What does this fold into?
Amino acid sequence: MTTINSISIFFPCYNDKGTVEKLLNDSVATINKLGVEDYEIIFIDDGSTDGARELLASLQGRTPNFKVILHEKNFGYGRVLRSGFAAASKEWIFYSDGDAQYDVKELPLLISALEEGVDFVSGYKMKRNDSLSRIILGKVYQWGIKIIFMLKIRDVDCNFRLIRKYKMDQITLRSDSGSVCLELVKKLQNAKAIMRQVPVHHYSRIYGHSQFFNIKRINTMVITLFKLWWPLVILKKTK
It folds into this structure.
């Protein structure tokens, strides 16, 4: 297997009290299996109200190189990702969601796809384990976004990604909402990042519920997409 020298692992969290401890334990086990000694694990809590913040605070000190960033209120998924990337200091950055619908123990699958010159490895869902309405909306969104923004990726919203830090330093994310996933992928594409893609499992939620698929958020997303199209597609901005 391809080896890496250092890695930052971070998880965006919002009301994920039921999954954060498992994610931490699985991250440590995965890092130990990979034999990476230079690492950090970061949880970014975006104003949780279910006790997740208190649990994360209690876990500090139990694991070396474990950090917690607390947002004073719920800013949105984009702001959380921006905080995570800003805090990450290692050669490689891996992130996945705090709801544990992806299995951090599959991180070696991403690492195995690394070849000379590869900057970015993104997972794509083998099968989406969500409600029928989310699956249908997700397929329509993915199909439309890939055409409109000319994306060369199978799964824009599979938040199971490994990215070289120096490539992240070449782009600037500005989105506060879930549109950050589109912005991230398109700006990396504009920055000529060399990408590989691997299939990963997607699991049903075991705790909490989705914050994204509601009418208010979808309306906001549509407006945001219109604002992003010109700078990302026509101007090919990375900053």
